[in-house]
Design a protein that fits this description.
Elements lengths: L1 E11 L3 E11 L5 E4 L9 H14 L5 E2 L11
Length: about 80
């Protein structure tokens, strides 16, 4: 399993459309597996700086719709 930071688009009846940066997890075949809760924390300042760099990289990639995590898996 691999992961990276990605922007995920959510839709909510009350809030409407909103975005979060998540740790997104992928299966061996590259399909979406899941995502983490939105958070940023580290035991060091340098660690926070590194995460911010990852977050900036996430904004340069295509946005993932949350619905994509719940699509039926292709059985092949």
């Amino acid at each position: 399993m691999t992961w990276n930071h990605r922007v995920v688009r959510f839709e909510d009846d009350e809030m409407g459309e909103y975005f979060e940066i998540k740790e997104v997890f992928y299966n061996k075949d590259g399909s979406l597996s899941g995502y983490s809760e939105a958070t940023i924390m580290s035991d060091s300042f340098d660690g926070l700086h590194e995460q911010i760099t990852w977050f900036k990289t996430a904004t340069s990639k295509p946005v993932i719709d949350e619905k994509e995590f719940f699509l039926p898996k292709d059985p092949t």
